[in-house]
Input
Amino acid sequence: MTSVIPEWAPPSIAIANSDHTFPVRRIYTIGRNYADHAAETGLGGSTGSVPGISLKPTDSLLADRGTLAYPAATRHLDPEIEMVVAIGRDGTDIAPSEALEHVYGYAVGFDMIRRDVMHDCIANDHSWDLCKSFAGASPVGLLHPAAEIGHPDAGDIVLEVNGETRQHGDINQLIWKTADIVSRLSGYAPLRAGDIIFTGTPKGPKAVVPGDHLAGRISGVGTLDITIR
Ligand code: MN
Output
């Protein structure tokens, strides 16, 4: 059998200090997972029985050192710096105590959001998908295997725009920790090798404009640099 349209390879993330890549199957994002950011949204933290989860299309991936074209139909584009967890092994109903065994590694990501579109979606009682679905909406830095860096659970998470600090928190402030997220997500649908999870952002996302340079770092995880054009 042959395809009736051209086939494509899955988008992938480069692995640090390696020629290997990590193909990406699905992109999950967790909302309001730092109390200080949750408070500033006015919506409260993701502390309920269900974590707030969105999916982004895999073709929104953008490589480290990449250039993000300012998206169409947008007046307010926010970057959210987040730790990204990459799943290396399939699992269903994973116990929290075994969850980290399913994690291949970690990276720095920017969960890019059309904030104006998000507010329009909320006002109209629509799904938020449009606010997170555009080319370049998911910049991800080099992936660092857990076999090399362990499973980071504390450390500065910082976003600088044009050299000025915009966000500064600590990944020890996560409401849903990595193991919680992996366990809970795998209870709703099988987690698969290749899935990646953006784990939420600390307070302070602020709009960026063409020409801005975004530099992110998470202590013990890595860095991510992109430019908006
Ligand atoms: Mn986010």
Observations:
- Residues 13 and 19 are 11 Å apart (CA to CA).
